[in-house]
Amino acid sequence: MSLGLLLSGCTTLNQDDIPDATVSQVTQATWWNDFHDPLLTELIARAMQANPGILSAQAALQQARALRDVKLAATRPNLTVSGSVQRSTSEGADASVNFRGGLDASWELDVFGARQSAVANSEADLQAAKASLRDVQLSMTAEVALAYIQLRSLQAQLGIAQHNLNSQQETLQITQWRAQAGLITSLEVEQAQTAVSQTAAQVPALQSSLAKTRHSLAVLTGQRPHELDTLLLAVLPIPQVATQLVDVIPADSLRQRADVRAAEARITAALAAVDAAEAARLPSFRLGGSLGLTALTLAGFSNGAALATQILGSVSVPVLDGGASKAQVRAQQATLAQTRASYQSTLLTALQEVEDALIALRNDRERLGYLQQAASAANNAALLAQNRYSSGLVDFQTVLQTQRTLLGAQDSVASLQADLSSGHVRLIKAMGGGW
């Protein structure tokens, strides 16, 4: 099934159209294991435990669950126990004490489903809160992975810059020797020095970016900026995923996305709100009763107490409200129309994000092969130019050009490798955690 089929009929979505929560929930709860990087796994575990955004979403879920329970309690009978002691005195008479105990019960019959609609509304809010928590968890774990990939990419770029700096310093030494021997002018020495200084200037900039990325990872995992410096000090390769991209992703996979599930839950809530508004225009029925005992002493409750019972039934019928109840129904129906439109917009956005991520990954993989070939050729050319310059067979401009080409090609490979890994993370995020 293609992704486009998911949109069919969504403009006329009814209660039966809302997907069941159990449909195709093939989520990859530990998608980051595809990178086979234990340190990345550790960082994500820390984020799941201590990231403030995740903790806030967990608290919101607890709140939604409690509010659902409040609505659910309103559908059940209400029982109240009461007791009192009264002492009264009057002039010329002995003081009197009265003990009273009572038991009151009430239950509003949900004949037209108003209470159940309220419960359904709260249940939908609860499901939306669950989806929101999963969305926050996925977003935060993706942010950790992206920051980690960026860290390794910066380390690779720093290593490339330092390696090329060493090569350029060797070239500078050669030009100085050749100038001292009168074989070249000081112009070539200055050009070599310029290349060395330009490459050296990249090193502190990359080191600064590395420090900032480490700080970002620390904050994402709920720690102070410098607390991960030692853990992330080692230089490791950019994590890569070896899994093959699929050509077609099942349509049901989009339902793993938290924003899609939340949109579905909002439709459920809107449908329930319409039902509740319509039920509010209908009669309501209530049953109640009480049982009371009155005695002059506590012992009198077991014998000699006066017993009073009461059973009450009531009905309430809306008659005139100035059209407020009808207007409320129309308002809830308009809200339902908005949620349907929002649902369609959410699906379209999801489709775009998935297609964009797939196209970017396919094209980047093709580009990487060409760039690796270019980097290999540039390395060979730089070595040849260096050797031939030492023998006086080529001019210095050839050496400079090959070194610049090599630096650019190696940087491009490292950058694209990071883009590939980041693109995989973005695809996982777009699919709601996997497919």
Give the count of structural domains: 1
- In the CATH hierarchy, what is the architecture at level 2? Up-down Bundle
**Number of H- or I-type helical stretches:** 7
Determine the N-to-C terminus distance. Answer: 13 Å
User: What percentage of residues falls in helices of 4 or more residues?
Assistant: 55-70%
Share in β-strands: 5-15%
Number of distinct beta strands: 4
Model description:
The protein has helices at residues 38-50, 52-73, 114-180, 186-220, 258-279, 324-390, 396-430, and strands at 78-90, 93-109, 284-295, 306-316. By secondary structure, the chain is of the alpha+beta class. It has a single domain (3-76, 113-279, 326-430), classed as Up-down Bundle (Outer membrane efflux proteins (OEP)). Strands 1-2-3-4 form a four-stranded antiparallel β-sheet, with no helix packed on it. Helix 3 runs antiparallel to helix 4 (186-220), helix 3 runs antiparallel to helix 5 and helix 5 runs antiparallel to helix 6. It starts with 37 loop residues before the first helix and ends in a 5-residue tail after the last helix. Residues 1-28 have low confidence and may be disordered.
